[in-house]
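Lecture notes, part 5. Sequence design as translation. It can be helpful to think of inverse folding as translation between two languages: the language of shapes and the language of residues. The source text, in structure tokens, appears below.
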């Protein structure tokens, strides 16, 4: 039983998280920005974004993910329950 998820996050949210994480690791802001501009943003478009089309469920990122987590939990519960009962499980359409 495989469930493919894609967690969506806006570019500004991704860069802020990266800056905070790398500053806490001792990198300078200039280093973080240079690496992001030279490599990371292009790699996201090349490697991460295309995987969205293969996801069974796209989860919007953000600060309050409670609703999305509850949706996912309900989907997994139903999926497991129906799998145990021997029924085919329809995943939500993309």
């Amino acid at each position: 039983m495989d469930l493919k998820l894609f967690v969506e996050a806006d570019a500004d949210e991704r860069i802020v998280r990266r800056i905070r994480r790398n500053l806490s690791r001792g990198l300078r802001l200039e280093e973080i920005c240079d690496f992001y501009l030279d490599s990371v943003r292009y790699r996201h478009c090349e490697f991460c974004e295309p995987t969205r089309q293969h996801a069974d469920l796209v989860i919007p990122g953000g600060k309050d993910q409670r609703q999305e987590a509850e949706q996912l939990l309900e989907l997994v519960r139903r999926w497991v329950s129906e799998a145990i009962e021997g029924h085919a499980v329809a995943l939500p359409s993309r």
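The translated text above is only one of many valid answers, since several sequences can fold into similar shapes. The chain has a mean pLDDT of 84.
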